[in-house]
Amino acid sequence: ELWANLKRAGVYLPLVLLLWLFVYLINTTSWYIIIRSGGKPGFSFARLYKFTVTGFALNYVTPVGLMGGEPYRIMELKPYIGVERATSSVILYVMMHIFSHFCFWLSSVLLYLCLYPVGWVMGTILGTITVFCLLVAMLFVKGYQHGMAVAFVRLGSHLPFLKKKVIRFADSHREQLENIDKQIALLHQQKKGAFYAALFLEYTARVVSCLEIWLILNVLTRSVSFADCCLIAAFSSLLANLLFFLPMQLGGREGGFALAVGGLSLSGAYGVYAALITRVREMVWIVIGLALMKVGNKK
User: Fold this and answer.
1) Residue 249 has what DSSP assignment?
2) How many CB atoms lie under 10 A from the CB of residue 53?
3) How far apart are CA 73 and CA 89, in angstroms?
4) Rounded to an integer, what distance in angstroms lies between the CA atom of residue 62 and that of residue 33?
5) What is the pLDDT of residues 15-65, one digit of tens each?
6) Both ends of the chain: CA-CA distance in Å?
7) How far is Cα 133 from Cα 102, in angstroms, rounded to an integer?
8) Shortest CA distance to 222 belongs to which of 192, 165, 266, 269?
9) CB proximity list for 17: less than 8 A, separation 6 or greater
10) Cα torsion for 206, 54, 197, 189, to the nearest 10°?
11) Handedness of CA 229, 223, 250, 125 (dihedral sign)
């Protein structure tokens, strides 16, 4: 079935793979702006692009996503800009990346209200999504103002089995954690141009990635607009991220695609087909990302 769908995709599959080369380029530019706001990075943009692709590849295959790619990015940047600046830039970029998701979901709610009639059931769902996104957005704004490293460690000190280790880590690295938070807050307080540029680029990457769904569904039907594809991407990614603890969000994204496409009065099979092609794209870029770990290293 998958092989038949791949043959059916035809030339659209290489286009989808090529599209993500540009999506990762936008992501890298956003991260580069954050690093440059603290001074010259001491490495090329191409090297940062390599770290970006590999970081996302590790996040795809790691349960709880960020536990894989972000430590790798910090370790790669450490020889160039030091551990504190590397950590703050990675935390800032992750915050920007996640915050852009919430901005995308909020704008998708507005888009749905403009395009489709809303009953009480859908109104309740959209209202819940809006309240949830606004609450999280407020937390992120507070994090940008005061930093997140100390708060994150403080949260970890309440976890069972990790409490003593986290407290020891916080005590021995208190000064470094406070410096990381100062660097995080500095971008929002004094480098507002860089802050909003990075956020805009991350949001743009979310919108550009919707072209993937549009290209895939155009194999099956011409009745799907780009706006519909943005709604499908928003709903499916929201459901998949609620299942963040699953490697590659297996099952969550497929179900999200089927439900999102069905919600637009299209066959749920279209959603499953789109999810399958998306998985193939992910697998190809995971292989590329993991292979890049061994390319161009000093050691």
Assistant:
1) G
2) 25
3) 10
4) 27
5) 899 999 999 999 999 999 989 887 788 888 999 999 999 999 998 887 665
6) 43
7) 6
8) 266
9) 281, 284, 285
10) 120
11) positive
